[in-house]
Design brief:
74 residues, mainly alpha
């Protein structure tokens, strides 16, 4: 028997009922589309971050090369 004073009581219904006029299937399809959109946005963000990291590393390498040239000339 579940605890009467629990903050998170056990629920028998695994999902919330759909809003009026909308089926569970429609809700799932919307959830899937939303998740796919979130994945797309995350992938785009990751690509931008990787490109920025690559650009920064190239800039660091260029500066290190210039600094080595200056140090070696002295």
């Amino acid at each position: 028997m579940p605890c009467q004073n629990c903050e998170n009581p056990v629920r028998n219904d695994a999902e919330d009922p759909p809003p009026p006029g909308q089926s569970r299937r429609q809700m799932r399809e919307q959830d899937i589309q939303s998740l796919q959109n979130q994945v797309r946005i995350a992938k785009e963000g990751q690509q931008r971050a990787e490109q920025e990291a690559h650009d920064l590393q190239a800039q660091i390498n260029q500066q290190n090369g210039q600094n080595q040239g200056v140090v070696g000339a002295g």
